## 1
Amino acid sequence: MLVEQVSALLERSTNVSIVSSGNMIETWEQARAELAARRDASRAMGGPEAIEKLHRRGKLTPRERIDLLFDVGTFREFGELVTGLIEVPGRPDREAPADGVVTGWGRVSGRMVMVVADDGTITAGARGPGGNRKVAYIRTLASQNGYPLVMLLESSANRFQSMMGAQFAGGSGSGSIGTSPPVALWQSEGRSPIVCAVLGTALGAAAFQTMDAEFATIAAETGAMAMAGPPVVLGGIGVETTSQELGSAEVHGSITGFVDHVGDDEPDAIASVRRFLGFFPDNSRELPPRLLTGDPADRESPELTDLVPLDHRKPYDMAAVVRAIVDDGELLEIRPRYAKNIIVGYARIDGWTVGIIANQPKRLGGIVDVKAVIKAVRFAQICNAYNIPLVFLQDQPGFIVGPESERDGALRQVVRLMNAVYGAEVPMVTVLVRKAYGFSTWLLGGRAVGADHVVAWPSASISLAAPEIGVATLLRNEMAQGELSEERQLELYASYRRMSEARWATYDFRIDDVIEPARTRPELAKALAMVEGKRRAHLRTRRSFDTA
Amino acid sequence: MISHRVFELLDVPAPLSPAPLSPALLGLVTFGLVSIQGQPVTVTTELSQDALDVAAKRGTALLAVVEHGSALESLHLSGGPWPIMVVSDSVWPLAGADLGLLVGAEGPADHDGLTEEEAAAHIKQFLDLAFDASPQPSRGRTPLSEVVPFALAAAYDVETVVEELVDAGRWMQLQAGTNASVLTGIARIEGRSVGILASRPGADGGLLGPEACVRVDRLIDWCQRSGRPLISLVDTNGLVALERMEDVVSVRDVAVHIRTSDVIKVVVVLGNAIGLGATIMGAVGARANVVLPWQRGSFALEAPAGGANDPKAPELSSTFQAACAGDVMDILDPDDTRVRIAEMLDLLRGRRTYASTRSTS
């Protein structure tokens, strides 16, 4: 078995026909010169014309992208000498420098990160078996040692001709000579973060990977993601289309919500990767790094009472509330263009990363609908997998009801939210800002699902239903027969509203406190410090998450 | 008495007098706890499971200085994460030791025919190397291309290569007396304690025999138990022809051992990596974490018919071809070897802890 394997590996090595300088190497000096020439050839990528063509289309080469990703001078390329062979019937064979993919590692804000970057200057970013071996090696290194992996995707497909027939059956990644077996394609989910930047057209496997990434960004205009590209669509169902129509940044940023961030261009997308990594630990067994920016933990935010109107019917921007509370106002919003009625994102409080889940009353009154739940569940699961505490800010009238949302599967999504939050092992701290109505009050960080600390602003109102809905339900018959005067209705509303004031809930610790809005940040910092032990208690358990 | 003299040389205070004591006190006195080279060490004059258990509970190395040891008390012993050092005047107590020192006589020990002074010095050196030290400033590039000529046929001294790769003077050979086709030892590279395995291409025509395999096995065992990385320097033309089944089986066991062990394996191929010799050395099919060849040799399943100097050999599977196919990830300049080994050790340090915590979840 071993001999067969070794034999296969060696056979593969000898089958690659490479263009040699033809000189017999006899000294170290000659060997060095040959090696230097090969490295130069690899770094030249597809040549000046192909690079120029890429630039004209508003795209960058993999090496330019890597320069944007890593701290200056920290990139170490590994697999540079791998060279593919592009065989097309009727054309002369060509070499594929680095086999169409640049791999290695470098540092992002001083921390080690692995990288795989497709090369759009060579067969549009498709790679051969050698390239696959490189990618498998780097993935394995990242997974086994617990480093984040960044994939700068251009196409990441396999060159068609090297995957014909039986080659395809064995999978695309196989081990290098004598090194560790590669990790399965999706195995590292929830262990060390995988970050995908869709900078070109990511089809098939590259798109699947993006769906599963802890963070995914796409470059507007140039990025696209789909099951299959236009030629396959035309051949398959006879429809003419474009990559952008199939899966542009707009499609996946706003409609499907499959990407977490949309970059204005490539540098913006890559900058978001650096920002994201700053919030995250290297792997699920570590705490995220603490970054003290000099913003004092006990800083008050007096502007909050101006931002949030007392009248529950008046909208405001919850993002501004979040920014007023967190360190330096820095919030990395996740999927900001999708389900805008809920805000999720990473921020810091007293230097520690927190995951914010906050209703957005500016959109649909902050109602919790199917898309909002999909967005919140995945985010909560990822925070839970990476030891990031959850901070909820509630202002919501409850779950959306009605035939449309029932048909969208609201019931299942509500239960998913329940399981995700109830099952979370990270600290959870909740602020009830205004409306806290319905079952969703419990599920979005309520005491009932195990929140560690729940506080309310004096403006909060807590109840199973809004007073208007409560009265309409209880006195349905009287209202229908006109027996309930308008005066009496208002009286009942006021009485129900008084009953739902937050202060009643504090009397027997159903919530922990009613706080001055201006003191929200100090209170959150204090609460998070109190549950510090809980954050460390679960470092060793692995928690995975769904793709959605 | 060997024990008195060795302990005296190591500044071990005198509670180990053989004076009769009550059984209750015996345990306390026999397994003394002392400091040698700044490392806590449990010392004893009897090698027994009790001694190992006491050292394991304390989390210290064990030093046993045993006179007239018998097979019965030593054959079943094997160590844990901390090293076992045994000094004796007979070979039997040395069987389960990580460092076995034979005083007076000659035999298959790590070091034999020693005086007490030499034994004490070896113990100090071993304790110095078996634990990580604070990171040393890098020695930078090392002129290995001057030590090893490019031509495959040219001889070179692999001990000089090892000396250039490790922190200045920080390495010791195990079983230094024998001239097998591999050398094994422990060393420090940039402060990190590592196991060293290296082919001696001059010995036995560069072919590995059963004895070499046993040494490889023992080193991997030490690396595995102590959590130290293995640095393997490969230049082998394969295995010697084996005719006895028991030799084939034991070689096969070593191949399985190196393949399945989760020791961090950093492999540098200095010359040839041929056949199952290359597997035993970790270069091919052994699940190394990284295999980095120099440019002078080749990978092959079998040695070329015309021997190592067969001009056809490089055409079969040169390191360039292996690198082009992605079977190896890079080719090393000899002068960068030390820097690149240190870099890989740095990169791979999370592996063992990460893998072992995973299995507990």
Note: DSSP finds 23 helices and 19 strands in chain A.
## 2
Amino acid sequence: MKITLYLRESRNEIKRLIKDPVLLISIAFISGLLFLFIVFPLIKVFQYSLWPEGEFSAKYFAEFFQRSYRWRPLINSLTVGALVALFGTVIGFIYAYGITRTDIPFKRFFRTVAIFPIISPPFLIALAAIFVFGNHGVITDLFNLDWDIYGLDGLVMTETLAYFPIAFMVLEGVLSKVDPAMEEAALDLGASKLRTFFTVTLPLATPGIATALLLVFIRSLEDFGNPIVIQGDFPVLTVEAFLAVTGMYNMPLGATLAIFLLVPTMIIFVVQKYWVSRKSYVTVTGRPSGAGLQSTERRTKYPLMAAMIFLSSCVLLFYGVVLYGSFTRLWGVDNSLTLENYRYVFSVGGQYISDTVTIALIATPIGGILAMIIAYLVVRKKFLGKGVMDFVSMLNFAVPGVVVGIAYILAFNTRPLQLTGTASIIILIFIFRRMPVGIRNGIAQLQQIDPGIDEASTDLGAGLFRTFGRVTLPLIAPAFLSGMVYMFVRCMTAISAVIFVVSADWQLLTVALLHEVDNADLAQAAAYGYVIIVIVLTAIIGLRLVVGGLLGRRTTLFQPE
Amino acid sequence: MFRRLLIFSLTAALLFGLAATGFTAKETLHMYTAFDVDEAKIYMDAFKESYPDIDVKWVRMSAGEVLARVRAEAKNPQASIWFAGPSTSHIAAAGHDLLDPYTESLAWQYLPADFKDPEGRWTGFYTGFIGFATNKEFLEKHGVEAPTSWNDLLKPVFKKEISKAYAYTSGTAYTTLISQLQAIGPKKLGWDQEDEEYIKKLSAQIHHYTKAGSACVTEAGLGEVAVGIAFSHDIVAKGIAKGYPVVMSFPKEGTGYEIGAVSLIKGGPEPQLARVFFDWLMSAEAQSLFKKWNRVPLNPQAELAEGLVTAAQVPVIEGFGGRITWYGERKDEIIDRWRQITGR
């Protein structure tokens, strides 16, 4: 009975679709793009791994389990991921709670510090760790330490600092939206502040905490830049997959390792999307919930503030030392100041700068528009396979960059789609990897807009495009613009996918940075890093002014992933 | 209003994109080079002065990575010339039929047989010797001398204090490996029992592996590790000449050397321009530029750097040159064994 009902529903939906050809074509077009640039490359990865020479062979899989140097990196990656998720969430929680739930001063400063690592290439922190804790590091020399920063310690430290902002943003969102009425009720009933925290606040925030843990875990698992600098003798899977492909041209091996990298991230992604996020205990009303319960107690305030000051100083120390390092002549030996490194960056790297910015500027608007269209289709329209489109468009978000990179060179290096070596392949990677965030933003924003407005437009005779362009888009403009800013930032700081596809014609700044680090030319690497940061900051501030001027309202320029 | 802004920015982006990916009046030569970026720039700038109409677009990768790239692009090569890197990697590429022979350059006349491919698929243009770069401060602190033997590297004082590159990404590291295979144990081709034991013990002494061959010199200079194993020209140019406190030494059992090669990639987009660069490279004028990086040029008329490390000063393994081709042809198998032993 259910099946016939489902079939009839589907048939009706198809009939409805055929009556609206514009919608039909849009859906077909978008589905085509999603399949070609998200699903097809992944299929290729599986193909290369399990059908290495045209015939089915589980040889590489078997080898993975037999040789310790193949599976140990996976264990290492998971270990690092778990630790980073834990520490990152704790730190993120400290910041989030301090900012949303107490009345400590300098909140803007703390918030800025908490978000800062996002606008820099993530592996700049590994470089900073060497500047600070390496054998000639600032702290090492100051305290005469005997600590080897390479390896597990270094990885956990750098990735925690690089990714705690994600936990922070998720938790900030959650903690600021928990209905204060619950806590007030507990307090009224006589519970102490501490008890309220543990029995009311924390449980209500649990889905947010779970989300933070999972998201940071994924980011740590897929991290490539930091490990390649500081993993030392503690190999992780992303680097192994990279070396398999670029160092050994062993595509089947690279594909196999990619699959083993994909499995944990996919599991986590699915768990988060279909289980944790459904259990949100946050009350979402149309009105901002204003100030939650703000604690003025010294017992909570001062320790939190102390922790936040300490952590902020760590972040500032790291970035500060890199800035200083970029002006040194020869780090560790000759610390005299010079502009030579920047001169180098602008001469040798001048082409890289223009390449990177060009590609980012092309990818950003295309990705932004595509994200909005998909968000619109997913939220407002009902059609067959909507759930699939929703899932697929978010898929690349869970796929580690290294896997995407490998998948794209496997999929697009032969006719008819020979894109390797061109700018297009880089642009495509950027678009389809970064789109999910734009889609999420769009969906969130669209859900807050009464569908009645759209209906009014269509009732008055406007077609799909007209409604979208003149009614919906202006209303979701903040999400659109913040999505674009985010996309631009990620384009400028991306490394793990694009390192596979740079060519003699098109080079990227982050790849150049990595080469300098690989060559142990630290001061030059630092200069590259800051050039990237300056470009990103300029874009963000520039857009903030434009948005502020145009729309006259504040927007949050960053959303957690 | 907003819509107009949107349309405007989209059109701008599209036009910008079209213009940027558009054409230039110059001719472009696409190149892969294994030279350090700082060093490559020296030659690119000089070439540009002699040939201002040729725009060279180059990507820097370690020799093993170039090999991997050229293999990956075999059906649609993106570059026309492979500039630098030990001949062993070029030999491996020739074995996969990825290179175009070229025997018309002037180098063909002055190069002895060991320094060029008999069929002209690769041509040597410099050499360099594998040596050790050791941090002076470390030596003072621990009261030891710089290593002068392959076995010195196994001393407890150097445990986890050595860095070198992966044998499969770096030409430097592969040359190191084949030097070790020949210097240690009985003089026979390929792996033997003593070689395996040595490599196993050495890998326990390694702090970390790098992708690029000369990175360990800077790391030794910085004091991140005590000893780096690299080519003499890199040790001088990136270590001593830059002001890092490193000292260079060679193993007394004998060390190997590289024949730095250049080759034309088969099916590359600009074969003619590649030949122009090739010919320029073989000239005395171009090879005199190696002074700046302390490389040993193969053109007998090139000027040499002062105090250059030449074969006369280094304990070279006897007959090493004659075996390079053998080791180049078997690169894959030899490295596979290395990976199994070291677990990396």
Note: Residues 178 and 327 of chain B are 7 Å apart (CA to CA).
## 3
Amino acid sequence: MPDTLPDIEVVGQRRRPNGTFPQRGGGSGGGGLGGEGGEHQNEVGENDPPPDQIDPCASPDTALDWNADAAAAEGKKEFERRGREEDGDDGHLSRERYAFILQREDGSLYLSSIATGGPNWVNPNEVSGQVTPFNVVGMVHNHPGGSQAPSGDDWAGFDIYYNYVLQHAGLERANQLRIYIIARDTNSTSPALQIKAYNNQSSRDSDAEGDEVNPEALPCPGPL
Amino acid sequence: MSWSVITLIALHLGWANGQDASPTIAAIANPMRPFQLAGRAPEAVIQETMGERSDQVRTLAIFRHREEGRSGPLSWRIRDTGTEGHARSAHSEDCPAVYGLILQLERIPLPRLEIRPEVDAAPANYQGRLPDIGQTHTSYALAASGFTSRNEPVFFRVSHLGSGPIRDWWMEADRQLEGCWRSEGTGGA
């Protein structure tokens, strides 16, 4: 294993506190910190980006982040649908669910089958049958208890998956692995669930929350 | 049992201390001491940690007991302490499963060490299997002692995530000890 890892530039559909979600053509960042937040980076909202801005869908590297965030948003919607149908959940999720985000040969992403567990656990192995070191891009699961950061055991599991991908598919592939946590915003009176994104370079501090992913994120149009 | 779900195996070594510039995993000489009862350390400690915030910790500690001045047979106790501090015990005198579980614990299948990545000698098309980490927000740890064939004392400290031999023993202990538990205080230490 190499001693140092290259920096990873994430171009996803994310915002930091008080920021706004980027539209296509808005590049990375998703708003700013503190007083810099709250300003739209790009009001275009069309598929064609302005000529001076990066189109995240123009390159497979940036499109992966964009599409992975969209897959996480799709996972949230599917978790909520199942929660409503199976548990009568309304605005929250009473049981933990888990899915892998996998990549097809054409570069497009899809969700694995979804595992359903209990109020504070779920078994990823139940839905890992399609996972290979070459197709896994990330994992998404929810925390019914409201913790928006990965637990210590979530990070331990992430490291095991990371090493699995690293050994078989190499560093570049391993560094693409990300983990999404869906939980209610405990700092808000709103019951809305949020999606937070983390990767190998994220802080492991239990208080360090990742960037928020747009819950309405959509993938790039067409195959990559 | 996959090698990668075993996050720590150490012989005569302590838990990792990731805060130090030069971390030592021999930080705690005897991991059983914090769990002593009436001045005696347990013979083994098994722990389950659960929850999104890893805040639900349950400990089973195994004690050997012989009354002072008596040469009769030993008795054994498994003491269960939960997150909220409630304690209860199962005693071998009235619960035969206690001794059987201790034997089972001695015989849990410990995996061998794997230092080399499994792909080192593998053909290019070998993908391996995704390691089974078991259920989320769950981990198990075991601390116990033993001896080598040359009478050298060793400490075993093994931990894994939500799937593995300690969890298997834990689930079996939960099943077999149901109905054996006495609230702390009614049976004495």
Note: Strands of chain A lie at 14-15, 97-103, 109-111, 115-116, 136-142, 178-184, 193-199, 211-213.
## 4
Amino acid sequence: MGTWLFLVAVVLILAVLLTPKAVGNFPLFLQNLIYGVADGSIYALIALGYTMVYGIIELINFAHGDVFTLGAFLSMPLIGAFGLAEGKSTGVGVWLLLLLIAVIVMTINGGINVVIERVAYRPLRNAPRLAPLITAVGVSFILEGIMYLWRGASNVHYPDVLPGARFAVIGSAFISIKDIVVILTAIILVILLSLFISRSKLGKAMRATAQDREAAQLMGIDINRTISATFFIGAVLAGAGGMIFGLYFNSVRFDLGFEAGLLAFTAAVFGGIGNLQGAALGGLFIGLVQVFSNAYFVSALTDAWIFAILILVLVFRPTGLLGMQVPEK
Amino acid sequence: MRPRRTFQRDTAMRWATGWVGDRNRTIYTLLIILALLFPAIADVLTGGEGNHLVGTAADAGVFVLLAIGLNVVVGFAGLLDLGYAAFFAIGAYTYGMFASGQLLGSPLHHEFHIPFWLMLIVGMLVAAGFGIILGAPTLRLRGDYLAIVTLGFGEIVPLVVQYLGPGSPVGNWTAGVNGIAAIDPPKLPFFVAGPWVGAPIQVVKNFDFTNPLAYPMDFYLLMLVLVAVCVVLANNLYNSRIGRAWMAVREDEVAAAASGINTVAMKLMAFAIGASFAGLAGSYYGAKLSLVSADNFHFIVSVTILIMVVLGGMGNIPGVIVGALLIYVTQFFVLTNLPDWVTGLASLVGLSGLNQSHGDWVGLHDEVQRLNYLIFGLILVVVMVLRPQGLFPSRIREQELEKGIAEESVFDLREEQP
């Protein structure tokens, strides 16, 4: 009940702020809305990994943003290797190849994250809580260092292989194939993830482990395997996010994941950390706030708005939008 | 029959053995010796040109102060603060604004030149005030939600500071992206120069800290005093009733509240006191550098300070001092100079061909420079995996950890029973 009231209040405030802008120039508003949803979809994909890892081992995984960047960097050479070139490739084949590349990237990314967990976090599972936080920062530096060595410090062009076609919606507002791809990918992955978590046996094990690790262990759940699986899935989503980020913006940099990760983590907390729907919703919200603030409100303060909203939300709803009130352990 | 011992001999023995056996006292002793001998060591190492190193050491002291302050919040009270650099920024900008010509162009149309010594206190109070403003509504949040609130605050402060420059609707307060420059150095009515600053003995009237006679030794000495004061303050806090209350809150908030501790007030106090240390460090930083810029206070600074605290040994003051110095030396000395060292080594062993760039190889110097991130990350991971409790953890924490392991082994024994 309280949740809904709060959501309604948030939506009302946003409506009051945005209605004059929407009335003033509706096509521009709609265009921003489309951009915001597309950006938000990418944030949502990163935020899901944050929220899953936090939910299961209460670790703020600072390296997750860089795992996202890794997805973009891994897919770049593959696109060339599979013979896709800018502006030349058309037809169904492109989509199938991209899907294949995505699957490869997601798998490699997942594997890398499993290794990271094994090396940097698992030895510290019973250590003071801040120790794994520091190794997470360390892993973040390592990943950024590797990508820096690999492609240098400046922006790297990401091959623009998606069709550039776009369709008019209203007036000067357009929706491009890229927008649709980003949004659809995110929606499909989020649906698959919720189905996996709610229906599959491993998903059930994850929920049990998140709730009470020791009890889950006593019920015969292999904790290590479950946690590895969580890291794998988190990195799979982040890898997909990185690849569609590259395809969408066509420019990536080694430290891209630093800020994106920070914002995605904000999204996860905003939605109620540990809550999958919350993370998706939070990602979407952050994307929208970012785009609207850049367009209508002081763009130099965009990140400040985002964090100020986050702080306000937490003051009034201490566990985020959809987070459950759980007793202190 | 027991051998008799005189009272004096007994206490002297206990004192001596205590001094030798107590790791913390050993660290303090070594640190004091190092601090006093450092200018001489620097001179010897660089062949009489030690001033630059002494200046660097004075800068490292800023991070020591910050680590001591963050240790109050994270180590004593157990509150995760990921935006500590914000309070550092607040201290630095408070001093910058009120000890330079900056506010002449602001809506106040008046420039202030308040003495450094007063601003040290004001900076502490302002930072503590911001700590209370941020903490009061948010300290009821559970652990990691608090962390993200502080992270958000840490991101907001530099952005707002940068925004309040030329052209902002409320006037130019902070000089925006340029940062505030030409900040007043600390001044003393007189100063006795002598061999301790590498000069003949003489009295300098109206001494200011940029005086070439003593610079940067005077900043170094000031930093030693500040660190010593902060160590005593933090140590007394830790051993006081407040310190014990913090420990109780850190270990079990519910139990602490049930024992009559006002947990919110205690957390707020930790937050404000921790922030005030950063305010102090900020004022000094502004005065030493004579320039403050919002770029120097981003998330990465907060993370660096947190790394210093956790890696040094949370909750243990000598531990975090060592942590701060080690990380500072690694980042700003070893990693910055490593490319030069490696280049020199390559020339020495006859591999100077590696130093030139050809094709993809950009030359040994730049190749090593590129490795900086990677090396620093590896150091963090390796050290934390090998010593999760930090290099020199507090004794109490260590015992808690060992006890935790003992409890688990009891559990294992039960499992093995037929």
Note: The longest helix of chain B spans residues 317-348.
